[in-house]
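From the methods appendix. Each design record in this collection lists the tokenized structure first, followed by the designed amino acid sequence. Records were kept in a plain field format so they could be parsed without special tools. The example shown here is representative of the layout used throughout.

RECORD:
FOLD TOKENS (167 positions):
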């Protein structure tokens, strides 16, 4: 049964992905906040590599839900290789398979005065070297069964600790 096309565009936040399990959480948090806005029928995240879900899988799921317009926002500061070449190639392949879907791609994050304010705030709260690994440790909150994750098997890894508790 074919779904009727959705009248609201879907928004996909596109990023490279990472082997670090918790690296995608910030993007997922952005998506959760954007889902509260009325402009989008749905908001999803999609990754080029390493992290899931993959961009092409997200697009195919949206199409199966009847979405006819997909707005892609590259979660990058500049339109480097991942945006200019890799994202463009992904979209070209998808357009061949599903020509009825309109893809719109925004500019990457780029420069914005509010980002400069955030950078000043970050610099004001900079920490000495003994705290530099704090963010990495927080990533362990989102551990998955992924041996390619740099934290996999380490003491902060929840997957490893859950395995130990079962024994």
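DESIGN:
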């Amino acid at each position: 049964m074919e779904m009727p096309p959705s009248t609201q565009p879907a928004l996909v936040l596109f990023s490279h992905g990472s082997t670090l399990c918790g690296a995608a959480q910030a993007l997922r948090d952005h998506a959760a906040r954007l889902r509260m806005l009325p402009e989008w029928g749905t908001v999803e995240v999609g990754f080029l590599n390493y992290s899931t879900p993959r961009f092409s899988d997200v697009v195919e799921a949206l199409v199966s839900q009847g979405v006819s317009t997909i707005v892609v926002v590259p979660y990058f500061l500049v339109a480097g290789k991942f945006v200019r070449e890799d994202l463009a190639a992904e979209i070209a392949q998808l357009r061949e398979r599903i020509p009825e879907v309109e893809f719109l791609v925004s500019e990457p994050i780029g420069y914005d005065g509010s980002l400069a304010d955030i950078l000043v705030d970050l610099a004001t709260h900079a920490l000495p070297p003994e705290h530099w690994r704090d963010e990495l440790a927080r990533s362990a909150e989102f551990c998955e069964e992924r041996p390619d994750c740099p934290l996999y098997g380490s003491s902060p890894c929840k997957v490893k600790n859950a395995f130990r508790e079962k024994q």
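APPENDIX NOTE: The radius of gyration is 18 Å.
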